[in-house]
Amino acid sequence: MSVTQDGDKSGSVPGRSQHNTGIPPGPLTRRLLRGPRPESVPALVGTACTLVGLMDIATGVFPRFRHSRMHAFAEVLPGALGPLSAALSISAGVLLLLLAHGLKRRKRRAWRAAVVLLPGGAVAQFGYRHSLLGTLLPLILLALLLRHRREFAALPDPHSRWKALANFFLMGAGSIGLGLIIVSVHPHRTVGNPSLAERLEHVLYGLFGLDGPIDYRGVVSGTVGDSLGALGLLTALTTGYLAFRPEHPAARLTEDDERRLRALLARHGGRDSLGHFALRRDKGVVFSPSGKAAVCYRVVSGVMLASGDPIGDVEAWPGAIERFMDEAKAHSWTPAVMGCGETGGEVWTRETGLDALELGDEAVVDVPDFSLHGRAMRNVRQMVKRIERAGYETRVRRVRDLSAGELARIRGAAGDWRGTDTERGFSMALGRIGDPADGDSVIATAHKPGEDATGPYGDLKAVLHFVPWGTDGMSLDLMRRDRSADPGMNELLIVAALHAAPALGVARISLNFAMFRSALARGERLGAGPVLRGWRKLLVFLSRWFQIESLYRFNAKFQPRWEPRFVVFRSPGELPRIGLAAMRAEGFVTLALPRPLRRLTRDRHPRPCAHDTAGPPDHEIRTA
Questions:
Q1: What is d(CA 314, CA 468) in angstroms, rounded to the nearest whole number?
Q2: What does the H/E/C string look like for 257-314?
Q3: Burial of residue 30 (number of CB atoms within 10 Å: 0-12, 13-18, 19+)
C-alpha cells in the first residue's frame, strides 16, 4: 500500500495520466506550431534563398558536387531541380541570389517574384524527381510568404535607366567569371589543353549561344553550352527588365518645395548653420502635417540620409521626423542623420528611439570677438601680411551685387580649380554658385592685379563662397584657389570676410567641420590615457587619406568656438553601411559610369558646382 501511496506522491493523479491528450503542449511545441515571428520572416526567407542559390550554382557547376552527400541534401531544397540540366540549376541559383537581398529588405516586388519561383521549383521537383521533400520545402517557404505577406510591403527604391547599364556590366563580368569556372572544371573530358585565351573565347561565344573552340567528350559539351547560354540569357533578361520597368526617379526638390523651404528658413533659418544647405536641388523633402517643419534627405544605397537639424519651428519637428520615419519604413530604407546639432539630436533620439554618436565639431567664429592681435593669432597675422605685401587684394560682396560676367568667371574658375573629377558635397555644401535665388550669399575673392590678367579668369586667384545663416550669419560653402597662387589664400579670404562682416550685417561665421575634433584635442593633452592616445594616432594615420587632423588645425587658427555635431542611427551594426552611404553622398566614394559615358550624360544632367575636399589645408572646405 505504501508503494501505491508513494506512487501517488510522485505525481500520479487519478484521471490524469501521462497519456491524457488534454495535457497542454510544452513551450517548444507551441513555438513550432506558432512558427517564426512575423518580423523575422523576411530575414529567414532571404537567408534561405541565399544558401539555396549558392548550392544550386555549385550543383550545376562542379561535377563532383552532384555526386556528393551535400548534393543529396541540396536536391531537396527549394530551387534545386534534380535531374534537370545544370543550366537550369545555375539559372535558379543566380535568380535566388538576386532575389534574396530584396526579400531581406521586405521588397514587395521580391515577394511577388518568390511567390512565382517557389511553386515552380516545387512542381519541377515533383514532376522530374518525384521528391516529396523537394516538393514540400518550397511550399513551406511559400506558405510563410503568403501568411506574412504584410511584412513585404516596401516600395521600390529610386532608380533610373542607368541601373540597367550597371547590371549589364556587373552581370556580364559575373557571367564571364562563372563561365570560366564552368569551362575549366571538366579537365578529364576536355579535348587537348586549351589556353586561357581559348577558354575565354569559348565563354564569350557560349554566352551568345554559339559553339566555341573547345571540344568535350560525352554529354559535357551540351552541359557546358547550355550553362553558358543560360548565363547569357539571364544577363539579357535582367538588363532588359531594368531598362523597361517603370522608372522611379530619385527625389528632387520641386519649385514648390523650394519655395516652402525658403519661407521656413526666412522665419527659422538662424537656428542651424546648415539650414541653407537643405536647398540643394538633389535632395528630397518631407514636411510635417502642419507644414511648419521639414526634413531634407537623400537616399544612397538603401540609406535615407538626412542632414543637419530639421528646418522650421522646433515645436513642429516631431511631425516632420515622424513623416521621415514613415517614408523610410515604407521603402525599407535605413534611417540616419548626418551632422545634426545637439538640440536636433535630442529631438531625433527622443521621438524615434534612435541613438546618437558625436561625429565632430563645427568651427564658429563670433565676428565681434575676432581680432588678429595677440600671440594666438600670430601665425595667421604674419601669413596675411605677407600675402598682402605680395600684391594680393580681396573683395567681399553679396552675390546680387556681382555682374553676370563676373559670376560666370567665378563659376568657371571654381570648376576648373576643383581637385577631382567628382563633385563633392551633401550635408554642408549648396552645390551651386550665383543662382539668382541665392542673392544673399557672399563671395570673397582674391586678386593679383597686373599678373596674368589676360588669362581666362583675369587676375582672380581664389574664391570663397558663403551661404546665409539666418539674418545675421553666414556659413562657409566652398574654398577654391588657383594652384599657382601663393599659399595662404584661404586664410587671407577668411580674414577678409571677417573684417567685412559688420558692413554686411553678419555677426557670426560658420567655418569648416572637423571630424573627431575632440578626440584629437584630448589625445594630445598631458595625461591622456593609452586608449585616447591610440585613437588619436589612428586618426592621424587616417589623415594621410582623409582631411581629419589638417582640417582641425586649419580651423583652430581662427580661435573659434566649437559646436558638436552628431550622427543619428538605429543600431551600431548599421554604422558601417551608413558611413559608406555618407561617403558616397559627400563624393569621397564614387560608383560612377565610365568616363566616356559620363561625357554623354553631362549635357543631359548638368552637374552642380560643389566643392572639393582634396588637397592641402589651402583647399580645405566644410564637409561632414
A1: 20
A2: HHHHHHHHHHHHCCCCCCHHHHHCCCCEEEECCCCCEEEEEEEECCEEEEECCCEECH
A3: exposed
Question: How many other CB atoms sit within 10 Å of the CB of residue 10?
Answer: 7
**DSSP letter string, 408-455:** HHHHHHHHHT-SSSS-B-SSS--S-SS-GGGTT-EEEEEE-TTSSTTS
C-alpha cell recorded at residue 536: 588619436
User: Which amino acid, one-letter code, is at 15?
Assistant: G
> Quick check: 598 and 393 in contact, CB under 8 A?
no
Within 13 Å and on the Cβ side, how many CA atoms surround 18? 3
What span, in angstroms and rounded, lies between the C-alpha atoms of 113 and 470?
Answer: 51
> How far is Cα of residue 173 from the mean position of the Cα atoms in its chain?
23
Beta strands 303-307 and 334-340: pairing type? parallel
Q: How far apart are CA 563 and CA 511, in angstroms?
A: 11
Contact partners, residue 22, CB within 8 Å, separation at least 6: 16
Question: CA of 363: how far to CAs of 275, 279, 510, 512, in Å?
Answer: 16, 22, 6, 6
The pLDDT tens digits of the residues spanning 541-597 come to 777 776 777 788 888 899 999 999 999 999 998 999 898 888 888 776 655 544 544
Sign of CA dihedral 324, 330, 336, 338: negative
The cell numbers describing 34, all together, are 506558432
The CA-based dihedral angle spanning residues 414, 418, 422, 426, taken in that order and rounded to the nearest 10 degrees: -60
Q: Give every CB contact of residue 530 below 8 A, 6+ residues apart in sequence.
A: none
Does the model's pTM come out above 0.85? no
- Measured CA to CA in angstroms, residue 374 lies from 377, 499, 555 at distances of 6, 16, 17
pLDDT in tens, 338-397: 999 999 999 999 999 999 999 889 999 999 999 999 888 999 999 999 999 988 999 999
What is the rounded CA–CA span in Å between residue 346 and residue 313? 15
Give CA–CA dist 463/442, Å, rounded: 10
Q: What span, in angstroms and rounded, lies between the C-alpha atoms of 459 and 450?
A: 7
Q: Which of 357, 120, 333, 280 is nearest to 608 (CA)?
A: 280
